[in-house]
Amino acid sequence: MRRLTLSLIAVTLTAAIGLGWLLDWYYQSQSQANEDYAPLIEPKQWQVLALQSARVLAQQPELASEFTAQGLSVSFARLDDFPLPTPLFEQFVSGEPLVLNSQSGVSLHSFQAASQTVVSFQFANTTEPTEPETADPLLLTLLFYLGIIVFIALWLTPLIRRLLLVNRAMVQFGEGQLDRRIPLSKFSYLHNIELGFNQMAQRITSLIADNKLLSRAVSHDLRTPIARLRFGIDMLQETNTDTSKNQYFEQLDRDLDAMESLVESLLHYAKLEKAKVSLSLQAVELNALLGELLKPLQTQNHIILDWPQDQAFTAQLDKHYMSMLLNNLINNAVRYAKTQIKISLTKQKSALILTIEDDGKGMDKDEFDKVLLPFYRIADHEDVPSQKMTPPVTKLAKGHGMGLAIVSRIAEWHKIDLQLSRSHQLGGLAVRLVIPIE
């Protein structure tokens, strides 16, 4: 939103200042032209000129054609044919010129006593100098506001285009196109909103996928022990020996434990799925934390730990959830390792790299993403219920497929990059955590 606000302010100020300066310059140039304008011949000057010309024309009438060619009408009349009121007549006869204004223009009349002739000059309206027109202030005001509107419209065009794109994506996502995302652009005014929509859509898609997976997994994992319980109860009703009854009771007890463990795992994961998790971040020394978690394993002779402890590595983490994450990874490595587990911890410029490897069977590359989903287990590790139970034998599951799902969720909270691969050195699974320290 900051980018949107700043860009709107910048466009508005640029348009207002730029258009204001441009229109002001135009108006000033027009005003300067008016100030610089002046007739080539002032009225007094052309009157004197006309009087001087009248003396010449009275003696040489043939020169009148020269004045006519310049757009000036010249005519001659006798004094008797030029009636005037007595006061004005006396002034006129004494040599004072007479200037008359009419609809046809301005005329100047001069009496030449030597020839007893009245010389008349007719100046048409078309020959009078006119001042140049100045710009209309109202028109300039309209142009200013029109320019502002054009600038804002140009600014709004990409914004409206992105809003339509967001609206279309929201409608399509609401109609069930869960893979619909908004293509991001670093020049978009709505970059944060578009990014937030994509993250929200991805979150909703993940929740829906998790819900489907949970429904299938829970129904499958509950169906198996329930079927065994029903089978065990039926067998208890048919057997009469105490030995067989005790075996069936033990089997029923194990099946109930399996169901209880499944429900506990489901509730535990549901707690981690809360929309808001408050992390209590503090400086956690990872080598010390690993030491606490690995201490119980150091007594197990069949597991060899390769773990450098000579350097301190500190990051801002929630110690409780980080202990849960590391404990799940360590237990997973112990569960599937044959004889060896290797833990390495190194530091880069802006991150700590923690790697946990084992020499177990590992997994195929196409299962790296699947094992991060809740209740997903590799086929070799799933329960294989016995079809014939005489006495019944249960092959217990190695967990419920929640360990790496919990690890993935906690890593997401801490913005830790979780990477799964095959260990080149030991051949089993290698889990790599890139922990930011800045």
Walk me through the structure.
- With 438 residues, the chain is an alpha+beta fold.
- The two termini are 26 Å apart.
- The model is unreliable at 37-42 and 381-397 (pLDDT under 50).
- The chain has 3 domains: 2-37 and 132-165, no CATH class; 43-127, no CATH class; 206-436, Histidine kinase-like ATPase, C-terminal domain (Heat Shock Protein 90, 2-Layer Sandwich), CATH 3.30.565.10.
- It has helices at residues 2-36, 43-59, 64-69, 86-93, 137-174, 191-238, 242-272, 286-294, 319-336, 403-413; strands at 73-78, 98-102, 105-112, 117-124, 281-285, 304-306, 314-318, 340-347, 351-358, 417-422, 429-436.
- Helix 1 (2-36) runs antiparallel to helix 5 (137-174) and helix 9 (319-336) runs antiparallel to helix 10.
- It is built from 10 helices and 11 strands.
Task: Sum this structure up briefly.
By secondary structure, the protein is α+β, with helices and mostly antiparallel strands. Helix content is 50%, strand content 16%.
**SS content category:** alpha+beta
Radius of gyration: 51 Å
Helix content: 40-55%
Number of helices: 10
Mean pLDDT over the full residue set: 77
Shape call: rod-shaped
CATH names the topology of the largest domain as: Heat Shock Protein 90
Residue stretches low in confidence (pLDDT < 50, at least 5 long) are 37-42, 381-397
Query: In CATH terms, what is the architecture of the largest domain?
Result: 2-Layer Sandwich
Which sheet architecture does the biggest sheet show? 5 strands, mixed
SSE order, one letter for each helix or strand: HHHEHEEEHHHEHEEHEEHEE
How large a portion of the residues is in β-strands, by DSSP E? 15-25%
- The largest sheet has its strands arranged as 6-8-9-11-10
Oligomeric state of shown chains: single chain
First CA to last CA: what distance?
26 Å
Please give the domain count. Answer: 3
Q: What is the number of E strands?
A: 11
Q: What is the CATH C level class of the largest domain, in words? A: Alpha Beta
